[in-house]
Write a structure and sequence with these properties.
Layout: E1 15-17, E2 24-26, E3 31-32, E4 34-38, H1 42-45, H2 48-60, E5 65-69, E6 85-86, E7 89-93, H3 109-122, E8 126-130, H4 134-138, H5 144-158, E9 164-169, H6 178-191, E10 197-200, E11 205-206, H7 208-211, E12 220-223, H8 245-252, E13 260-262, H9 284-296, E14 301-304, H10 307-310, H11 328-331, H12 335-348, E15 356-357, E16 373-377, E17 381-386, E18 392-395, E19 403-409, E20 416-423, E21 427-430, E22 442-448, E23 454-460, E24 469-474, E25 481-488, E26 499-505, E27 511-516, E28 525-530, E29 540-542, E30 555-562, E31 567-575, E32 591-598, E33 608-611, E34 617-626, E35 629-636, E36 643-649, E37 669-676, E38 679-686, E39 691-697, E40 704-705, E41 721-725, H13 726-732
Parallel strand pairs: 4-5, 4-14, 5-8, 8-9, 9-10, 12-13
Antiparallel strand pairs: 1-2, 2-3, 6-7, 11-12, 15-16, 16-17, 17-22, 18-21, 19-20, 19-22, 23-24, 23-41, 24-25, 26-27, 27-28, 28-29, 30-31, 31-32, 32-33, 34-35, 35-36, 37-38, 38-39, 39-40
Length: about 750
């Protein structure tokens, strides 16, 4: 697909299909793993405030697509009492002049749709829009001409939005209303060529059955449905039961290659088979199984759903469908929803586009039903999923290298536990943790072992900052996984806090760590060292501002090893009231940067002023761009700025001048910088939006927003990125150290 829509925000880019026809990408070629949530009645059931709450929750849980009906029924009325259509005719949407939410005469149904679509874009979420639900077409309420007029109107209204995906159909076989569906699909494709189009079919069917060769369909979708193996008895169905991977396997064989995914598997909290509320309900382990099975079979993503959330069940509802018991705002926190991000994070953690399904990895029986093992691999990695923790026998030699490293990945929390190294030949056996039983699911990871290979670590803390040092890790500096625990508890400072941990590895291999040890009152920062990040020295307080008795704080100490002078430079922000012009800031919030140097972390040079740019400044990071060229990445902490800028100098200790304009939005802080290839990546905390953003640059003069090309686990806070030998990470993932 040729991307013809320009992004309307700094963040989002239109989605495309990868060159191999299997996956999704952003317009700049970054991998996009579809992690969808089912919010069918979002537009007509929720108010603006409720929609904000829902979208923020889904953003925090890692969802990047919301599937939603634009018109559920031709008599659609939303939470504000506004009808979608004139005379229940899709060809005549009911629109009014203006769009002010404060004026009910202006703010119509479609303005509300616009509001939610725009709010989703702000959070990096794409909206998969079903133009009109299939039951309306089945009932003869939409003619071919009405469909064309309506689709033309929709395309004109939304073609300039970057976060639109068109989902034709809606729980209906493609041959029921075939001419209508082809007209909607063709019109959307012609009038809005910049957005992907698919088809959402009836349960236990897939779009490829009717539309794979249609020029308007860019990717396939199946609805594996909500029935158990025993309930899948309807005449004419494929009778795959719960084996949703079989739909993916069938689509994967078709030509031309098109991405495919399960757009409606069994929902969490819904009765088996939908209609009998006395039946058992699908659980978090079931939605995990559907996800890993289908994705490992070759799907380009996965859509999760919850019974209460898909219908946005509210206290004032007179009734609910499918035996719903929960309210949507409680159900958004059911366990399955929070576990889906671990599927996305795992898939993005390794090279993405060369991944293929490969059952030849399995030695012996691949298994039936819940005993099924599903395997997928790239050139240097393999993932094998078991739903019940059964023994796994593998044919080795399917990925590169003489030796492989094996680990267990827990789909419930994303934590990795190292197993060990194995010869990459013959047959190897692996026994998952725990007892074999349904729901004891695990992913076995194999990685080509390369002695001396480096990985990225990202220091981190978690609010309220009493839990100590956390670590993220990455193989590409874009996609991060959480180690899942604290590796060092704070023991110094009045409040025993650990914020803003900064770490470097010295020439002798020792890791040095400094951190903010108190919000206010402390005259220094914490320090500890380690040879392996497992065993740590005694902690101590480095009271660098003790000579300034009125110092309010010592914030965000940042370490830099200066090869030119063979010493460590430590910079931090402090406020000394009445020392500098305060501008709009309070006297106790008017920061300047200070520094000290050391060669051994026992003796330190007297603290000196490092940077006074004429405004309150915090969270500064020194970067050596090249010999004799240094960059200081800093936060302008003045109102109304609160954003990230850069300055330039010829030495690590400055002076730094020529402060740039901001290259991040307001309310951003905590920058850290890492180089990968020719690009410098600058991560930052967009704390009002509750997300970690990033830009890339080659020269620190022009910056490209890549926030939606990176993935950072929720809850991560201000730290630094550095590279280590993979053996360091392996030691942290040893069972004995967890």
């Amino acid at each position: 697909m040729i991307c013809t829509v320009q992004a309307q925000t700094e963040r989002l880019r239109p989605l495309c299909v990868s060159d191999n026809g299997r996956y999704f990408t952003t317009a700049d070629g970054a991998p996009f793993f579809w992690l969808g949530d089912t919010g069918w009645l979002l537009f007509n059931k929720l108010t603006r405030e409720e929609a904000d709450k829902y979208l923020e929750d889904r953003h925090q849980k890692g969802f990047n697509v919301i599937q939603v009906m634009v018109v559920h029924s031709n008599g659609e009325i939303n939470a504000y009492g506004d009808a979608a259509l004139v005379n229940k005719n899709v060809a005549t949407p009911r629109v009014t002049p203006g769009n002010s939410p404060d004026d009910t005469a202006q703010y119509d149904y479609w303005d509300h749709v616009d509001y939610i679509v725009n709010k989703a874009a702000e959070k990096g979420i794409y909206m998969a829009l079903v133009p009109v639900w299939g039951s309306n077409v089945k009932a003869g309420k939409v003619t071919v001409q009405q469909a064309k007029t309506y689709a033309t109107w929709l395309a004109a209204r939304f073609k300039d939005r970057p976060n639109i995906i068109w989902m034709n159909g809606g729980d209906i076989p493609g041959n029921q209303g075939l001419a209508v569906w082809n007209m909607i699909g063709t019109t959307l494709r012609q009038q809005d060529p910049g957005h992907l189009v698919t088809f959402h079919p009836r349960g236990r069917t897939q779009s490829s059955r009717w539309f794979h060769q249609a020029s308007w369909l860019q990717f396939n979708m199946m609805q594996s449905g909500h029935r158990t193996y025993a309930q899948d008895t309807s005449a004419g169905d494929l009778h795959y039961g719960e084996d949703n991977w079989k739909y993916v396997t069938a689509d994967y064989k078709l030509k031309p290659a098109k991405p495919t995914l399960d757009g409606e598997p069994s929902y969490e909290g819904i009765p088996h088979g939908l209609h009998d509320s006395l039946q058992p309900r699908w659980t978090d382990s079931d939605v995990r199984r559907y996800g890993y099975w289908s994705v490992f079979a070759g799907a380009a993503g996965y859509t999760y759903g919850h019974n209460a959330v898909m219908q946005m069940h509210k206290p004032e509802d007179q009734s609910g469908a499918y035996g719903v018991r929960e309210l949507w705002f409680n159900a958004i926190n059911d366990p399955g929803a929070g576990q889906m991000m671990h599927l996305k994070n795992l898939l993005l953690s390794r090279p993405y586009f060369d991944r293929v399904p490969d059952q030849t990895l399995i030695a012996g029986q691949q298994g039936n039903k819940y005993n099924r093992l599903m395997a997928t691999r790239g050139k240097e990695y393999a993932f094998i999923y078991t739903y019940n923790g059964r023994n796994i026998s593998l044919n080795m030699g399917r990925i590169a290298g003489d030796t492989v490293k094996a680990s267990w990945y827990d789909p419930r929390n994303g934590q990795v536990t190292l197993i060990g190294k194995y010869a990459n030949k013959g047959v190897a056996n692996f026994d998952p943790p725990g007892t074999q039983q349904d729901g004891n699911d695990w992913v076995l990871i194999l990685d080509t072992y390369q002695p001396g290979k480096e990985v990225y670590l990202f220091t981190s803390f978690r609010e309220p900052a009493t839990d100590g040092l956390h670590l993220l890790y990455s193989y590409d500096a874009y996609h991060w996984l959480d180690l899942g625990r604290s590796v060092l508890q704070p023991e110094v400072g009045e409040k025993r806090l650990m914020r803003d941990p900064s770490m470097v590895q010295g020439p002798d291999g020792t890791f040095h760590l400094v951190w903010t040890s108190g919000w206010k009152g402390d005259k220094g920062f914490g320090y500890a060292s380690s040879k392996d990040l497992v065993h740590w020295s005694a902690q101590k307080a480095i009271n660098v501002m003790e000579h300034e008795p009125t110092t309010v704080n010592v914030w965000a100490p940042e370490l830099f090893y200066d090869k030119a002078t063979q010493q460590y430079v430590i910079i931090w922000a402090s406020t000394i009231p009445h020392r500098f012009p305060k501008g709009q800031e309070d006297e106790d919030n008017n920061h300047r940067m200070y520094y000290t140097t050391t060669k051994d972390f026992n003796t330190f040079s007297p603290a000196k002023l490092f940077l006074d740019p004429g405004f309150s400044v915090i969270d500064a990071v020194i970067v050596q761009q090249s010999a004799g060229k240094y960059v200081l990445v800093l936060k302008d902490n003045t109102r109304p700025e609160r954003d990230i800028k850069v300055a330039f100098g010829a030495n690590a200790t400055g002076p730094f001048t020529d402060v740039s304009k901001a290259f991040t939005p307001n309310f951003t802080e905590g920058p850290t910088v890492v180089k990968t290839g020719n690009d410098w990546l600058i991560y930052f905390d967009a704390y009002r939006e509750k997300l970690y953003g990033a830009v890339k640059t080659t020269d620190f003069k022009t910056f490209t927003n890549i926030t939606d090309d990176v993935s950072v686990p929720a809850g991560h806070k201000h730290g630094t990125i550095f590279k280590v030998k993979e053996d360091v990470l392996d030691a942290l993932q040893q069972p004995a150290h967890q």
